[in-house]
Amino acid sequence: QVQLQQSGPGLVKPSQTLSLTCAISGDSVSSTSAAWNWVRQSPSRGLEWLGRTYYRSKWHNDYAVSVKSRLTINPDTSKNQFSLQLNSMTPEDTAVYYCARNRPGAPFDSWGQGTLVTVSS
Amino acid sequence: DIAMTQTPLSLSVTPGQAASISCKSSQSLLHSDGKTYLYWYLQKPGQSPQLLIYEVSNRFSGVPDRFSGSGSGTDFTLKISRVEAEDVGVYYCMQSIQLPQTFGQGTKVEIK
């Protein structure tokens, strides 16, 4: 049974960088049959997929166009986790951020607990 | 991006009665591999979303058989045959035929 445990701050100042981590147990970030995603949820934007990282002989990343210039998702094989870094935060980035696993035929079959991130000075 | 439109946005149901949620996509979700990439999720109050149905009509592990999915192309339906108190929450459809994966606005189900 895979479990995803998120960590990171709940408050970020405008223009700063948000850093979140998702620790994986019960699976491997290097799995060749999974992809590791970040999704956020806000009243104004609903559920919004942000991006993913996955390993298929080499590491790959995909990002939503809306955040592509500001988002980096990195795997950490030594700690079996992956991270999100979102630069130049604005109040519009205020949301609950989730990490989630994709497997073939079962996208987002496991989710982290969510982190409410507020962007405010 | 593929737009996902759900109706209704809210539903109040008597326990034991049936409920139905519609989801329409702006493009066909039928892939050339023969699969249709439409999924349903339930977000219970205070929780993360959970996968209910994958590829239109397949119940995910542990999902009760009172939940069923149907549809094809761009029109899909989630049915709950006999609503129970534990079914309250917001239901979302999602497509994964192309990136970005996109979700419907959600349908809030409450018990009368």
Tally of extended strands of chain A? 11
Oligomer: heterodimer
Structural class of chain A: mainly beta
Rg over CA atoms of chain A: 14 Å
On the 0 to 100 scale, the average pLDDT of chain B is 97
- Considering residues with a beta carbon less than 8 A from a beta carbon on another chain, report the largest interface and each chain's count: A-B, 19 and 19 residues
Describe this structure in words.
The complex is a heterodimer of chains A (121) and B (112). In chain A, strands 2, 4, 5, 6, 9, 10 and 11 form a 7-stranded mixed sheet that branches. In chain A, strands 1-3-8-7 form a 4-stranded antiparallel sheet, with no helix packed on it. Chain A is built from no helices and 11 strands. Chain A is mainly β. Chain B is mostly beta strands. In chain B, the strands form 2 sheets. In chain B, strands 2, 4, 5, 6, 9, 10 and 11 form a 7-stranded mixed sheet that branches. A 4-stranded antiparallel sheet of chain B has the order 1-3-8-7, with no helix packed on it. The A-B interface holds A 46-49, 62, 64-65, 98, 100, 102, 105-109, 111-114 and B 39, 41, 48-51, 54-55, 60, 92, 94, 96, 99-103, 105-106.
Which SSEs are present, and which pair or pack?
The complex is a heterodimer of chains A (121) and B (112).
Chain A lengths: L2 E5 L3 E2 L5 E8 L9 E8 L3 E10 L3 E5 L7 E6 L4 E6 L8 E9 L2 E6 L3 E5 L2
Parallel strand pairs in A: 2-11
Antiparallel strand pairs in A: 1-3, 3-8, 4-5, 4-9, 5-6, 7-8, 9-10, 9-11
Chain B lengths: L3 E4 L2 E4 L5 E7 L12 E6 L6 E5 L3 E2 L7 E6 L2 E6 L8 E7 L6 E2 L3 E5 L1
